[in-house]
Write a structure and sequence with these properties.
This protein is α/β, with parallel strands linked by helices. The protein has helices at residues 36-54, 88-96, 105-116, 182-185, 187-198, 204-212, 216-240, 256-265, 287-293, and strands at 2-7, 11-17, 23-30, 59-64, 67-68, 75-76, 101-104, 124-130, 134-140, 143-144, 244-248, 278-280. It has 9 helices and 12 strands.
């Protein structure tokens, strides 16, 4: 069996899959926030409980909101900041007495959807997360493309492409720069844009609800979001030219995106045609943990 862990800021989830991708067991706990040692102990205990229940030992893959730096061997770029600067893979190996594979959670999404999800059968799958943050991962023939510095797919901390004057220099980002894509196309970025323009402090979900009810201001917020997201997606299409784009995260549940996006992406793509499918993730919130398990697919 293959065991995967999705190590998030609010929950740690573990799953066991068989070779066909069927779920054998699943467990979830709240993340012991800001307590690294407690996180290691809790994640290791989840694995032990699953293995005890199933009567076997599995391989272990872990998806984290960051990456293991090849330069230092320590976690970097994690928004669960208590993981940064820690040798998470080595500590988990010590806790469980076996090798583990650790990968960025967006890459785990890409692997999951490439294996048996919305990108099954595609050679190059680009998986985009539109949630609390904005990021992405790439799977090539079912394997995560990580890059020399393990930052392949770090889409959200690039600038918004083709900005107009009103979009420069852009909102401040927690990374220290301004105008990052994440500040425009994440859920909080979507809500913040509506608040800046209207003074209404609504969640992204509420803005979408108002848009569907015919509210003119909410419709404009959605149209601006659609335009910015299309530009951001087209920029990567021009570089990577993926076979399929899979959307995950809370905003991926906005059904209108799959009708509206292709025509808005096309004008920015450097090609005589654009027919790349844009699809919602098949496994939804389970994709990350499934992708972590598939890190040992061989």
């Amino acid at each position: 069996m293959r065991i995967g862990i999705d190590w998030g800021g609010t929950k740690i989830e573990a799953i066991a899959l068989n070779d066909a991708g069927a779920v054998l067991a699943r467990k979830r706990i709240a993340t012991p926030q800001h307590d690294y040692e407690a996180c290691i102990a809790a994640a290791a205990q989840l694995v032990r409980e699953i293995e005890t229940a199933l009567g076997g030992v599995g391989t272990l893959g872990i998806g984290i909101p960051g990456a293991i730096s090849p330069a230092t061997g320590l976690v970097k770029n994690a928004n669960s900041v208590w993981l940064n600067g820690r040798p998470l893979d080595k500590d988990m190996e010590q806790a469980l007495g076996r090798p583990v594979r650790v990968e960025n959670d967006a890459n785990c999404l890409a692997v999951s959807e490439a294996m048996d999800g919305a990108g099954a059968g595609a050679a190059v799958v680009w998986a985009v997360i539109l949630g609390t943050g904005a990021g992405s991962g790439v799977a090539v023939h079912g394997r995560a493309l990580v890059g020399r510095h393990r930052i392949a797919g770090e889409w959200g901390h690039n600038p918004l492409p083709w900005p107009c004057d009103q979009e420069r220099p852009g909102p401040e980002c927690y990374c220290g720069r301004r105008g990052c894509l994440e500040t425009f196309v994440s859920g909080p970025g979507f809500a913040a844009d509506h608040r800046r323009r209207t003074g209404q402090a609504l969640t992204a979900e509420a803005v979408i609800s108002h848009m569907r009810s015919g509210d003119a201001e909410a419709n404009l917020t959605y149209d601006l979001f659609l335009d910015r997201l299309a530009r951001g997606l087209a920029h990567v299409v021009n570089i990577l030219d993926p076979d399929v784009i899979v959307l995950g995260g809370g905003l991926s549940e906005v059904d209108e995106l799959y009708t509206d996006l292709p025509a808005r992406i096309a004008p920015f793509v450097f090609s005589d045609a654009f027919n790349t499918p844009v699809r919602p993730s098949r496994h939804g919130s389970s994709s990350g943990v499934r992708g972590a398990a598939w890190l040992w697919m061989e």
